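testing teh design pipeline on a random one, pls ignore if ur not involved
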């Protein structure tokens, strides 16, 4: 889910900045706004996160009824991340091996991977600083120079 390079500009931003008119993107299809149904397979912790995140995204008008699967993946990942963090809190960042040595706790690796997945999904919904910049609609401004030159 991670993107490479600069984030794409919205059609409104391209229009404001000018550019080649033969490469103007077609306007995006309208998306139905609404809350998705909570999947029945979510655990208790995942359902708590579902309630919290759908309330926040719903207030922003950022959810469609079709976003349920992706949001369910995020909530399930959140529950697994919390469990890995609890194991880390109990056992610590390193564990003793059968031979008497120490190694990194596998729960730390799991927690790190799940955290990256959660960040990527949150970015899709505009819930990270960079994601908010991409998700924020660009307001049209007056072309003061054009108005001045036009008289």
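output:
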């Amino acid at each position: 889910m991670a993107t490479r390079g600069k984030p794409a500009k919205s059609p409104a931003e391209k229009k404001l900045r000018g550019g080649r008119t033969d490469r103007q993107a077609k306007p995006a299809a309208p998306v139905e706004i609404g809350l998705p149904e909570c999947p029945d397979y979510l655990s208790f912790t995942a359902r708590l996160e579902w309630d919290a995140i759908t309330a926040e995204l719903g207030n922003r008008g950022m959810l469609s009824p079709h976003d349920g699967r992706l949001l369910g993946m995020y909530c399930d990942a959140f529950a697994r991340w919390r469990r890995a963090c609890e194991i880390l809190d109990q056992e610590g960042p390193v564990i003793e091996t059968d031979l008497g040595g120490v190694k990194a706790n596998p729960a730390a690796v799991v927690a790190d991977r799940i955290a990256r997945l959660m960040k990527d999904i949150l970015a899709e919904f505009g819930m990270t600083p960079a994601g908010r910049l991409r998700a924020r609609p660009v307001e049209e401004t007056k072309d003061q120079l054009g108005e001045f030159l036009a008289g």
